[in-house]
């Protein structure tokens, strides 16, 4: 294995490890989300009391799990894809399709969302945005910051998957490389 290949593999492992850690940590948000929803349902339908902050926590938790978990899903090939043809392709053909899809669609889209999401978050922070609803949550910029952060993690994972696909195309895949990048 060449020194340059070794460098790229270390980079891929570092990105994979980061998104694995974030994905596992964020997955606990699902448990928390279920508990908050159960509490909300109990309060609303049994005690006839509802709190705006609790409903906002529900969608904040969902947003964080979805946004920060996207890179984890991509790493584990659990994202949405039309597999009608792709499933029967060789590893090299899959790698080529992945390279094209990542370069033409995923990386530009991530860059656009990161850039606009950063401005969106920055403006929210500047004005001290909070929930417009009485009893809602303060610091709306915190949840908005999950947008550029989530897409940054997705962009990093896209780069890792791009490297894996290039290595397959160059016949430099290694035992840790999946047959389906």
From TrEMBL:
InterPro entries per the UniProt record, alphabetical: DctQ, TRAP_DctQ
Coiled coil: none
Keywords: Cell inner membrane, Cell membrane, Membrane, Transmembrane, Transmembrane helix, Transport
Membrane topology, record value: Multi-pass membrane protein
Predominant place of localization: membrane
Domain Tripartite ATP-independent periplasmic transporters DctQ component: 33-165
Domain of life where this protein originates: Bacteria
Localisation per UniProt entry: Cell inner membrane
GO cellular component: plasma membrane
Transmembrane segments: 21-42, 57-74, 95-114, 141-163
Family in the record: Belongs to the TRAP transporter small permease family.
Protein name per UniProt: TRAP-type mannitol/chloroaromatic compound transport system, small permease component
Organism: Catalinimonas alkaloidigena
């Amino acid at each position: 294995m060449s020194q340059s290949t070794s460098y790229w593999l270390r980079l891929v492992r570092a990105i994979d490890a980061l998104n694995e850690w974030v994905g596992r940590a964020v997955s606990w948000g699902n448990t928390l989300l279920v508990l908050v929803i159960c509490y909300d349902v109990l309060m609303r339908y049994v005690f006839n009391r509802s709190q705006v902050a609790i409903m906002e926590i529900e969608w904040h938790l969902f947003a964080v799990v979805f946004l920060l978990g996207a890179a984890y899903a991509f790493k584990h090939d659990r994202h949405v894809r039309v597999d009608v043809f792709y499933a029967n392709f060789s590893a090299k053909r899959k790698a080529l399709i992945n390279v094209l899809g990542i370069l033409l669609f995923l990386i530009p889209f991530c860059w656009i969302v990161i850039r606009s999401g950063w401005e969106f978050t920055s403006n929210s922070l500047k004005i001290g945005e909070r929930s417009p609803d009485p009893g809602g949550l303060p610091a709306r910029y915190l949840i908005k910051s999950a947008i550029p952060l989530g897409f940054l993690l997705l962009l990093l994972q896209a780069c890792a998957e791009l490297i894996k696909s290039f290595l397959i195309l160059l016949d430099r895949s290694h035992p840790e490389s999946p047959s389906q990048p």
